[in-house]
What does this fold into?
Amino acid sequence: MTPLVQAILDGLLVGGVYGVVAVGLSLVFGVLGIVNFAQAEFLMLGMYVAWFAWSFLGLDPMLGAVLALAAGFMLGYVIQRLLVQRVMSSDHVAQIFLTVGLLAVMENGALMIFGPDFRSVQTDAQMISYRLGPFFISAVYLKAFVAAVAISVALWALLNRTWLGRAIRATAQDAPAAQLFGINTRWIYGIAFGLGAALTAFGGGIVLSFAPAYPTIGANYVVLMFTVVVLGGLGSVMGALLGGLLVGIVQSASTLVLPIQLQNLALFVIFIAVLALRPEGLLGKAAK
Amino acid sequence: MMIELENVTGGYGHRTIIEGIDLLVAEGETVAILGVNTAGKTTLIRAISGALPHQKGHIRFEGRDISDDPPHARVSSGLACVPEGRHIFPQMSVVENLMVGAYHRRSSALDEDLEAAFTLFPRLKERRRQMAGTLSGGEQQMVSFCRAMMARPKLLLMDEPSHGLAPMMVEEVHSAINDVNSRGIAVLLVEQNVSSALRVASRGYVLDHGRITLEGTAGELADDPFVKKTYLGI
Ligand SMILES: Nc1ncnc2c1ncn2[C@@H]1O[C@H](COP(=O)(O)OP(=O)(O)OP(=O)(O)O)[C@@H](O)[C@H]1O
Ligand SMILES: [Mg+2]
It folds into this structure.
């Protein structure tokens, strides 16, 4: 029993981070109706921002994540206004070409600029873990989880308690009607894409506290992000956050029965099962 | 003049739907637009609200040409819309829907306007926290109407507000229009139910195949043999 509870605990902590990483993908889809295949590249970008902040400014990755948030927002906003806006009303093929192209450009750009090296951080938290009865909680994962919860609460408050948030949700639900009431939906699309990129980049900053950055790390997270988002219901913000927790737990618990190399197998199985049995996600769209 | 359309032509893509529309609404006046299905009534409303992508001609609001204003800029001039098919935000509560109506003002002094809406339709007050998508058709229409009123418009565009409603609800909607009128707000009303539209409106236009074929006071239109035959079934 103890190993299972320990695994669930570990999974829960890291699952919070997965939720933040994936919520950006869900937000972008929910508001713009675009599946952004380049979304995981903002995670990579966020990791590099946090790494440079750590290595040159001596900032803890949690603070680096805040810089990553800002950088992700700015880049996302510009990319939407300059590129994504042009395919907003095009067919899916054009949208897929654009975002997959973006993925290739960002990944190879990172390879050219940063080189192929793995870059990791060393922090005190990595050495510490807390004892809770028979269980251990690593300080890095605990910090990561707290940061993830904090940004999730901030996102929730933004979407539900501010005029901007109402405008974003109104645009997601009925853009022509939103426009009738003075919401500049084109601008909202830019903001929402920027916000999505920012959240994923913030997630990247947190991930850096326990995993190294390298140019193709995005590829490692793509399946995970899509699983989380599909699980929570594509376009649902709360769904993505909860989906992250669930995926974290399943992934962690699966290591008890499967060799670590097959960790992603459990994810694939869930991914396909959800698509087959409940394509609208476990929570449906109710939480949009 | 509240709003003035001069030679407005518009449609979708290269397909022209409405052509050479001249139309006036004076301050505080209620004007009806009548026409059979596909006459182009909704297209005309969308031309005024700015939602129609391609259009020619001039639309002046209180004398200012708003033809080139994007739709989201028109609401702050004093134009609000109860669109065809309600278009409420289904996954927002009733209160949030109403707040979006006040988005262009973004003022925190919303409480009195919310209170006014709830006084008009007490049923919405009971359901204020409910997701608007789960309301009945009639209740959604109330939300759509109150959302437009939250914008504090000078001119209210209404596209078939009583469509699909039970007779009692139709009465409720029309008494709401009278209430709006008594506050000095002008209304441009599209209605299928011609006899009741001519009771609330003081003037009307008949739209046929995208052109205005007839105009006059409500009394004149109600007595017109063509209107009688086509719409009133007399
Ligand atoms: N988005 C659109 N794209 C292309 N054509 C459209 C679009 N909307 C409406 N039309 C066409 O424009 C014409 C007029 O439609 P419109 O909705 O303005 O009529 P209406 O008078 O409001 O009819 P109803 O009484 O059924 O609401 C119709 O032939 C319709 O097919
Ligand atoms: Mg219509």
